[in-house]
Amino acid sequence: DRQTLVAVLQFLRRSNLRESEEILRREARLLGDDLGGNVAAVATSSPGVAAVAAVPPGKGESRGDCGIGSSSRQEPRKAGSRVSSPSSKTTRSGDIIGGAVVVEDQPDVSAVLSAYNQQGDPTLYEEYYSGLKHFIECSLDCHRAELSQLFYPLFVHMYLELVYNQHESEAKSFFERFHGDQECYYQDDLRVLSSLTKKEHMKGNETMLDFRTSKFVLRISRDSYQLLKRHLQEKQNNQIWNIVQEHLYIDIFDGMPRSKQQIDAMVGSLAGEAKREANKAKVFFGLLKEPEFDVPLDDEDEEGENEEGKPKKKKPKKDNVGSKSKKQDPNAPPQNRIPLPELKDSDKLDKVMNMKEAARRVRLGPECLPSICFYTFLNAYQGLTAVDITDDSSMIVGGFADSTVRVWSVTPKKLRSVKTAADLSLIDKESDDVLERIMDEKTASELKILYGHSGPVYGTSFSPDRNYLLSCSEDGTVRLWSLQTFTCLVGYKGHNYPVWDTQFSPYGYYFVSGGHDRVARLWATDHYQPLRIFAGHLADVTCTRFHPNSNYIATGSADRTIRLWDVLNGNCVRIFTGHKGPIHSLAFSPNGRFLATGATDGRVLLWDIGHGLMVGELKGHTDTIYALRFSRDGEILASGSMDNTVRLWDAVKAFEDLETDDFTTATGHINLPENSQDLLLGTYMTKSTPVVHLHFTRRNLLLAAGAYSSQ
Question: What's an example GO cellular component term for this entry (predicted)?
């Protein structure tokens, strides 16, 4: 109740815990004026209502009206029960903090459900809904597309309200009559919904809870909204108006209504579209400046050629973000925004190798497509569940359903372990070839098998320096393996459920993991606890990716949204909606400006990170897209799918002449080209091998991997 909240807020303010105070205020969505003297309340509508356990009012205090969340329809307020004198509002905060205020991350189920208390006549629900349907279908074309977005959330909430109030037969007939009208991309959600036929079923159902606690977001133009409001108020259709006010968040914009295509491109996620506010924060999407160091090369000519060759190769590109220019990219984060590991000598050598390779890189384009080398895992009866390839393309790792992690060398150089401690003590540490001598020739082999997980391995990632390997598994752990000794160094325990993906930062040291518990976690290799927990998705986090500058992390989820998180403060800075199925692959363009995402709907969507907009849709695949990768200079995007094909797309053409004016950004009126076929440069079929991983070598040869399936 209010006094409790006010007291807690004052306690937080006195203790100088400003951030916590803000968070509690946002979560509780305190409405109204200055509460309790010095605590000003802010009305916001953030998704997720914190359930705050109320303290029974003491003698002589009457109970203030509950200001928690918009779903507080717990009990009708008795006349005259509003607290009048401001002095009685401020209770002693000392006793309250004791054990009363519990802010849970999952809202209390019964509190959430009580919002569905009996309202309206159950027999009229069908009439209400069909009346609205008739009104929307008869409205002008320009409004119809926008108002049709209401059908699905209203259908779900009205159905749940009937079920909650135990009108089972009415609920059943309501479902049967209208479920066929919903858009095809809600089929999976409707299947879950159809199994909820009794009040008891609603108690433990996660989908149900999500739908209840996160307001469904609709983006509608002011004209369409006024039309709807007028209709509902004239008809005195309070039932529907209550649901609209209570469970939907209508993001109203000024300007032309959007067309059916524009709306269809953006909707389809579990909680509707993203609010426009969600994509307003500034994102530093530029690249960090490459460290400068002088390392003598083998021969002088090569150095000259390399210095010359590098910028020359980059000239044709419009924005030379990829070039190792001495200028700082204006969109880049400050160099020291997050602490990054120092470069070791071996890293510097590797960078020099990288530059030499880059000088020989093939310049790709529509006229010059990459060769593709496909690694097929044969007889993988262990069930291949994850693949990764080192940056220098020397090793490939497979994660398997039998809980093993297998590392292969794909060069003639065999994999060797370091000698035992006793043997190492005999080595002359000053000799030039000490790094060779510490390796034990007796252990040389093409394949090393790493045992340690107790469930299928769903994600693998090599560290940039090739000394470490990460793997994550259904057993809830992420393991760090040494590629010097081929043993497990650490098991990171934080997720309580399967971990679906993990990835090293492009600078090493940090890594990210995402799992069934709906959160992504940021770790550092030398901490056994996560450094950041990114919470906000409404379903499993299925894939994770670091931005090339390591300041941001993208996560894709089964709630059909992609979120971009700031590593520095853990904030969500972008929410992208538009996919119609769980997201399974993510790839940042090498210049850091764009993100490509693939999902079970077989579409690749392209996003402009700076403006927070969808800028392209690539259609062609007929099954889940598990792999996406940009070529080293970003000219080509490769996508690999369960439909046994690799497709190559013209990324330069897809991203040129983008309409990212302020109007588009403000309203989300995106104009996607009707046909993405002119961006498709080639389709390459395998015989019967779904593609699970793609990788461009430093010279732009495309490597693909998958396990042959004999169906």
Answer: transcription factor TFIID complex
From CA 397, how far away is CA 178, in angstroms rounded? 49
Distance CA 454, CA 292 (A): 44
- Evaluated on CA atoms 89, 93, 98, 102, the torsion sign reads positive
Q: In what order do the strands lie in the sheet with 594-599?
A: 583-588, 594-599, 603-608, 613-619
Per-residue pLDDT tens digits for 597-625: 999 999 999 999 998 888 889 999 999 99
Measure the CA–CA gap between 53 and 3, rounded to whole angstroms.
12
Could you tell me which CATH class the domain 384-417+429-656+678-706 is placed in?
A: mainly beta
H/E/C letters for each residue in 178-235? HHHHCCHHHHHHHHHHHCCCCHHHHHCCHHHHHHHHCCEEEEEEHHHHHHHHHHHHHC
CATH architecture of 121-273: Alpha Horseshoe (1.25)
pLDDT tens, position by position, 253-296: 888 888 888 888 888 888 888 888 888 888 999 898 887 766 55
Phi first, then psi, for residue 153 (nearest 5°) are -60, -35
What is the spatial order of strands in the sheet that 384-389 belongs to? 384-389, 395-400, 405-409, 447-450
Whole-angstrom distance, CA of residue 512 vs CA of residue 501: 8
Compute φ and ψ for 27, nearest 5 degrees: -65, -40
Structure-token pair, residue 114: 């009580």
Show Cβ contacts of residue 339 under 8 Å, excluding neighbours closer than 6 positions: none
> Could you please report the per-residue DSSP string of 308-374?
HHHHHHHTTSSSTTSS--SSPPTTSPPTTSS--PPPPHHHHHHHHHHHHHHHT----BTTBPPPEEE
Domain ranges of the chain: 1-30, 121-273, 384-417+429-656+678-706
Side chain identity, residue 166: Q
Q: What are phi and psi of 127, to 5 degrees?
A: -65, -45
Residue with tokens 């292969």: 408
Taking phi first (over 0 means left), then psi (-120 to 50 degrees means alpha), and beta for anything else, what does residue 213 get? alpha
pLDDT of residue 204: 67
> Structure tokens of 341?
């590991």
The pLDDT value recorded for residue 297 is 52
Q: Which residues of the chain have pLDDT under 50?
A: 31-107, 299-325
Query: Vertex 299, ends 294 and 303: CA angle to 5°?
Result: 50
